[in-house]
Amino acid sequence: xxxxxEIRYEIELVxxxxxxxxxxxxxxxxxxxxxxxEIGQPAAMLSVVFVSATVMQNMNNEHRGIDAATxxxxxxxxxDWLELADVPPENFGDVVICQEVVRKNAExxxxxxxxxxxxxxxxxxxxLLGHVHDDERSERLMSSIEEDWxxxxxx
Length: 155
Description:
CATH architecture: 3-Layer(aba) Sandwich
Radius of gyration: 15 Å
Number of helices: 6
CATH topology: Collagenase (Catalytic Domain)
């Protein structure tokens, strides 16, 4: 298999509403590239977007009907739109993260921030790859994949 550097992965880190990109995000991008390589994904483009709790709450309310901030939301690219817009098919979409919630969750679980950040990015990536957790069986499957990918660093 080719090394991660030889495969084309574009993972853009974006800040919205002046939310700082945490230094730990760069290591999480490396982890994401390694996972994509391991699963044999030949190319991928995605954005990891950091937003404030207010923006996340609005997005969560708009897209899921839940009026509260959450740690991560994923927005897979619509493949019909890809064809119409002449966008490369390896464009997966966006993973939106609220680091304020991630930090609170890490603290509650007794984890370091970087471990929880890796978890939510992997969770978001799974959604971009088509995984869901809308019932007990699919939730167990998704958790199992997360555990495999993250090893002992998952809570």
